[in-house]
From TrEMBL, chains A, B, C, D:
SUPFAM superfamilies, sorted: Homeodomain-like, Tetracyclin repressor-like, C-terminal domain
Entry-linked Gene3D superfamilies: Homeodomain-like (1.10.10.60), Tetracycline Repressor, domain 2 (1.10.357.10)
Sample GO molecular function, one term: DNA-binding transcription factor activity
Pfam families for the chain: TetR_N
Domain HTH tetR-type: 17-77
Name of the protein: TetR/AcrR family transcriptional regulator
Keyword ATP-binding among UniProt keywords: no
Keywords: DNA-binding
InterPro entries per record: Homeodomain-like_sf (IPR009057), HTH-type_TetR-like_transc_reg (IPR050109), HTH_TetR (IPR001647), Tet_transcr_reg_TetR-rel_C_sf (IPR036271)
Chain residues forming the annotated DNA-binding region: 40-59
Organism classification: Bacteria, Bacillati, Bacillota, Bacilli, Bacillales
Length: 206, 206, 206, 206
DNA sequence: AATGAATGAGAATTCATTCAT
DNA sequence: TATGAATGAATTCTCATTCAT
């Protein structure tokens, strides 16, 4: 949009934007590592390679940085939606793909997610952002399973519990690998597959 | 209240212990609510109803409080062990009981667990404490399932993935309810049952 | 009242009070010299000979220091009242004494008054404190003159304007000598006398 | 507005002067309202509608703005001189007119005067500016009264005290109305008249 | 054993000012 | 000439911790 049409001199808008990004990147990393309080403006400025005060020229105050970061955590729904909409031939493929989509969505949002988890208690508005993700993932999957059942591809069953199990598994894995960083090697593709299989059989899907 | 003057060293030990407990309780609550940094010594002392300095007579420094709290997080193994050792008649009952045991073990350790989750990044020694629990729970369940299979009560299957799903589900639920405090009402007993059923069928257990 | 009855050990209450006083004195002096903003907590602490943080143990924040100082500026009414109530034999003596009372009341409140004058614009609550003094002095004098007239000791006249002139003269002198510190030597006793005489004759008082 | 590009150095001088004036006006207003420190360069630039840095192209530093403002406070002598030189028929008219002249001279210089009053302590060079006005007004009036006495229009008297009273009254009124903004309504013309009358009678002028 | 006073290190933030463009 | 970005110094205030009682 505002791609500084002419760029007569390289400085200006582009450079400003870059400084801004550097500050955000530094804050993202530090807050995920040390929490909101632990990521002091001094440390952020040092990591970003700018003067501490420069932060305050770009963001009204420290909290604004957090807000800006949280806004990065855009809606996950479209991705999940597409995963469910695609025709996969069989239900297992659908589940595997859904698992992938959800898991990598979490991984993509890794830092900000961790910030959310840590700051959930102190910044109440973070709650929604945070809880919405698993909640939505469960709801959407449950809904899909119900549809499949109506189409006759699945017998009846407790789809709510099933969806919950499925989503929980990948959130748990995400946490283990990217937050607590458990050292056990996890083979994600295999996990997607196995989990999908167990779930599918668990709800009588074959 | 102020009768300490007269009690010349009598019961001093008990009273001292009580003060200590009050400080720990206050710190436990505040750190779970606001994180390590957010739980200032001032706030802790106020909540504990003692003078701020008194904290430092009982604990070398603030970090020692954290360490002490973390040490509260006793081994979960004995409880799980007992759940698995009991004769339940059928596998489903076993699973339901295992789920209960694990879930309520988490709930019991709620505050300290949350502190661990929040401070995982800052206090590396917390890592082990934190990761050990789910890891152990998965391992033990996997082992048990394998035994059941050897006993002919279960067909072959990916018991690792299965155990992982099972444990993940309850950790996820624990987080939703006790940390992020998602407002959806969760009916735990029903969840234990449904999850156990799905898992059991998923691994061909009937 | 709370004169630390026993004073078993000299520290404690008495010493704390002294620190408090030292901080107030330093703030009083600096704020009168440099205004509220100019009197930084650092400078105050240095002049008071305490650590900067100690200030915040005694006063919630910097503004509280100002408020506390302003509260020093006690009611001027009783003094003026007594001056008017005393029997002086003649009106001139009354006026001279009233002048003295008002003038030295201002001088006594010198620093705080100057702080008020400087900060009137920024701290609206200071307005009242500040304006009340001359206003009250004029009102009370006007009232007295009216009484004297009713008693037949004075002819009729514009007592409001007269009282205003009288009070203004001494406020002006106070400012010249204690604030702007005009170097011209002012002989106050003589000024009181001359001003009283002129006023008295001006309202036909002899 | 943004047509400066085209105007190649034409009228630059005039425009520059205007910017300068806008900065001075903003500073004058803000410093009178909030004092020197309270009038930050940011606020000045915003009120003046210019970029903050532009201020420093016009004035070496913030202090120079103050100095420039103080220089605005032109001599009051010519106005007072003329008031005294005019033939008024009677002394009372002379006094009334002198009062008017002095009072409105103060009002005209209102902002800068207030700045002087507030900053007197911090900026010693302001002292003279500030004290000169009342001092001069008293001196000139005293001198005139003495002349009138020599001309036989007045009996002998303490003209110094008289002039002081007169001048003080109007300075006091000026302060009440334009600085501390006491809410009592003041009817200036009536005040001039009454004060002149009282003074005149007070020095035996009729 | 417990407490009130005191403090050094460091937090976020504001300010006047300089540097490039 | 004017401006947007950047900054060093300083400000108010908080925190964990020590000292003296």
């Amino acid at each position: 949009m505002d791609q500084s049409n002419h760029r007569i001199h390289q400085g200006g808008k582009a450079e400003e934007q870059e400084t801004r990004e550097r500050i955000l990147a530094a804050a993202r990393q530090l807050m995920a590592q040390k929490g909101y309080k632990g990521a002091t403006t001094r440390k952020i400025s040092e990591l970003a390679g700018v003067n501490e005060v420069t932060i305050f020229r770009h963001f009204k105050n420290k909290e604004r940085i957090l807000v800006e970061l949280l806004e990065e955590m855009t809606e996950i729904r479209p991705a999940l939606d597409q995963a469910l909409r695609t025709e996969w031939g069989d239900v297992k493929s659908l589940l595997v793909h859904y698992a992938q989509t959800y898991y990598y969505a979490l991984v993509e949002r890794k830092e900000v997610l961790i910030i959310c988890l840590i700051e959930a208690a102190n910044h109440p508005e973070v709650f929604n952002l945070l809880s919405r993700m698993p909640h939505l993932a469960v709801d959407m999957l449950e809904q899909k399973l119900r549809e499949l059942q109506e189409e006759g591809q699945l017998p009846e069953g407790d789809f709510c519990a099933a969806a919950n199990m499925f989503v929980a598994t990948f959130f748990h894995t995400f946490m283990a690998k990217h937050w607590v960083k458990v050292d056990c090697e996890i083979d994600e593709p295999k996990l997607f597959e196995s989990t999908a299989e167990i779930l599918l059989r668990g709800i009588g899907g074959r």
